[in-house]
Amino acid sequence: MDTPERSKVGGTPISKFEDSPVFNFINSLSPIQPVKSVHSIHTFHSPGSAAISSVFSSPHVSFHKESRFFIRHPFPDSVKQDASSDGLDESNVHSGVSNGAVLSASIVLSQENCNITCSLNEASVDLADDSSTQPDFSQSVQVDNGSPNHNTSPFYGVKLDFKLDISCTPSERVKLVQNMSENTKNPHTTKIGLEVQFPADQMKEDASESDWDNLISDNTDDLLIFETATGSETSKSEEKDYGISLNSHPNASGLHNVSQDSFMDDDGETGEHDGMSPTRSSACQEHENFVDLNLKTEAELNNGVPLGCKVDSQQHRGVRRRCLVFEAAGVSKKNIHNNSNAPPSISLPINAKPNSENRQLVSSKTSKTPVPYVLPGIGLHLNALARTSKDRPISQKTKTPGREFISRPCSMRPFSPAIAGENQSFKLSDPHQSPDPNGSELHDSQAVHSDVSLIPALGIEESTSPKKKRRKTENSGENEGCRRCNCKKSKCLKLYCECFAAGVYCVEPCSCQGCLNKPVHEETVLTTRKQIESRNPLAFAPKVIRTSEHDQEMGEESNKTPASARHKRGCNCKKSNCLKKYCECYQGGVGCSFSCRCEGCKNAFGRKDGFEEIEFEEDLDACEKEGVKSDDGKANANVPKLEHNHLSESILPVTPFPSCRSSVKLPFLSSGKPPRSSTLSLMNRSENQQAECKSDQIFHDDDTSEDLRVNSSPCTAVKTASPNGKRVSLPLNGFGLSPNLKGGRKLILKSIPSFPSLTTDAPSSTQINSSVFS
DNA sequence: GAGTTTGAAACT
DNA sequence: CAGTTTCAAACTC
Predict the structure, then answer these.
(1) Strand C: which bases are under 7 Å from protein Cβ?
(2) Where does residue A471 fall: left (phi above 0), alpha (psi -120 to 50 degrees), or beta otherwise?
(3) What's the mean pLDDT in A202-206?
(4) Residue–nucleotide distance: A381 CA to C9 C1' (Å)
(5) For residue A373, is it within any domain?
(6) Is residue A377 in a domain?
(7) CB atoms within 10 A of CB A402
(8) pLDDT of residue A600
(9) Do residues A577 and A484 both lie within one domain?
(10) Residue A368 lies in a domain
(11) A537-574 pLDDT, tens per residue?
(12) Dihedral of the CA atoms A466, A471, A474, A475 (nearest 10)?
């Protein structure tokens, strides 16, 4: 073995390492000789003796500062001291405290069976404290592993353990890379790379046998302490939460990727790994020491490394190539890299093109980046939310001077029910905030900001003519929502203007002419708005109200079943039969209700007639089977089917301020079945007012549909007409009842937008209704 | 892309 | 409050 010279860690002669069990192990690889422990893990790359040489030949790479594999764990100085006191070369042992989290990684190569045990322990913050006092702590090793199985997300008290029993064969390769001293100073940057490669089959079998506890207990001496690398503030923040630094962090992942590449991708598979760490800082690239345990085979990763930690899917994707990779021996492609080779992969330019996985990471990361532009003094207008099918990009003002940049997510499902909820107290703002496609409600402050996270960067992409784009997006179905106004005469100061109606400023994509609905004209906008509100307090109220609950429950199907939501005022369609977007109900993805004055309603989401006709039917089931027939006697095949769904929905106006919202549960909507005749009977129009009264009484904040109870308390009559004389009523108001009814449905008005102008305080359900219907 | 249709909004 | 006009989106060609 000529290793010593070539094997340097961070320029540190490997002589010390030779004393280490690892070294012995390596030496003994062929024939397999036991290695009791590894104080410091270095790269083993060795099939047989030759392998050993190779191990140390490549170790440079792995040892090299630039090695990308790393196990990060912060730990207390005390620990560090202990480690050093143990005679461990600092280069081999890095300790640090990061965020109070203590991570220790121990890798043990057992003498027998050439077991290689890698215990990765993530010590909680508490542990970190303990670690100082507990010698054994050193054994616990925190490995930042990006293995899919590895839980990328930090967790307390979770040990990430994997034990690998492999027969030592020439094919086996274990790389342990430590990176050195320079970085020790900087706990955040110190990384140690460890790569262990095993035959795939062995890995599967053995990897599954993870026994960290044993490792810890047995190999106290053999500890590798790694400092957690904290690439960025973000990672730190994450780590703080858990007291553990994880590779889940983009930076970390990037590091892993890099490291992995450095070790594994001689054969050109690096392509897989390239592009890794866009987020990775150059500094990290050069100076971080990593310990990487790479499990190359995914099966291995999944099966062979029972970490007891599960990584969420997203994390998986991001993490997949990271750390622990046990490469099947057969996979010779993973050659230990020479340092010369390593650098390229290692020091991948930040702006390097990420691979698909990396991209995901990046994208996910970036997705959050957009920051909504909130016009000064202008608050979120939830009306935008109300326009369900009309997603508006979240307003975002580009930094470009004089240019408004408003974007809103186009995530809306084609028929997703409009979310209602508008708090007029908000100033016009954030134009195009859209309801969460998922139906999630915007809550208070969250609404304003969280939505932003949803921003698909719409605004950025809009360069083509707004109109075309709009159509394009609309046609596309899901992205239907991205709209812009095209006003020519209204100056975007009337409700004709969708933007204005939504309470958002017009943005660049808009092709409006003479637009005054811009931040520049804020006063004008507000004034006009007030005027309109004075005329009709509900003018900016969400047109469609629905419950978020529904979305949550229904998930993807929610778009199919918006029925629980209803247009607050109802449509007045004459010719479109409520089958086109001319119909606001249809457009909002909700069924028509009693409030509608439409003629020949065939609303696929729920016909007004359907309700009425069904109302008195004794056997709803029959109805469902037959389908609901409209007044004109035309059967609407869609209706029954849809009815199930949308009836199950609850009305949920989404307002940013939950406190201001009250929810109404309409009794039978959650059943998911069409209204039962008995139930519907209550909805008889003659009884509308009564029903509405009931509905008023059943406002609830929570969604317990079962809670739907008819409140017998006296109710004041509620006007169904809007201030303007137009009927405004909550659809399904009359549904409050009948649990006894089979298939009772619930409409839940989870939140009704409070209109500050009307009621300063969070309106009670009654208040809401009164305000709505008065 | 222009023209038509449609229904809400605005107006009288 | 009803009728009419205006408006812009939706739709059609």
Answers:
(1) 1-2, 6-11
(2) alpha
(3) 42
(4) 21
(5) no
(6) no
(7) 5
(8) 85
(9) no
(10) no
(11) 888 887 777 544 444 444 443 334 344 667 777 888 98
(12) -150
